[in-house]
Amino acid sequence: MPKTNYKKMTIKQYIDCHFLIIYKLNKAKKDNRFKIEMVVFFYIQIREEMKEMYVEKFLQQVHRKLNEQGIANAKLRDTCIDIYEGENEIFKIDREGGMFYASDNRFRDVVDRLHEIIQPIVCEVDEYLRAMENGTELKARDFDMPYIKIAEYNEVVLAGREHSNGSFEFATWNYKNNSLYHGHYTTDYKGAREDFATRSGLVNKNLLFNKSELVEIYRCIEDTLNNEYEMTDKQREMLEDVQSRIKLSVPRFDELLREAIDQGEEETFEQTM
Questions:
Q1: Is residue 5 in some structural domain?
Q2: The pTM is what?
């Protein structure tokens, strides 16, 4: 029996195929055991091939985002991504999202910087691919774009779509009376997720800070800690903890901090002219 190739399917097509198999399985229950066994056989085959499709998409998406972050020395393989420093392989991302790196102390600073960039990318890609896989087709009046609904709350929806070039786009809409309006579109999944949370009222918008604001808060805390202001040990620990959390939550934090410092120095120089 020839093997059907599903690896080029989009996530939406996979979801459609998944529900078709379930429909056929339910229908087969009314017929005979042979039909049930055939449907189960194809279902297992499709699930295995979809698992391979997920791995392929996962590695492709991570590789795309590494390039967007300026990591051009990342090589996409069939089962992993290898990252080089010169001719030396110093970092590897496997098909499960596991990260491995060189123990050579010569590359410690480079490896630490790569880990800081790659960790949130791997987590984000895994999250939105699984969210898309578990989503349902977004249906609304006068709407025929192939979006998958990821979440819905308080008359707001979050959805995503996969383009033919392998890129993903995400959007939020107000959703009322089976109609969509006021769409916000982006390729940034994290930004779309935050937009959904604030538009739907899950999170108070005033409690969120953008990357530039967080960097400035970090700098202000650093000045406070370094200038020996009078404070308790508990207050100092709290401020240091806030700094650590900011550093972990902001992608490319060290680069953004350096840019903020340089910009501040330029502004100070211009004021003294």
A1: no
A2: 0.69
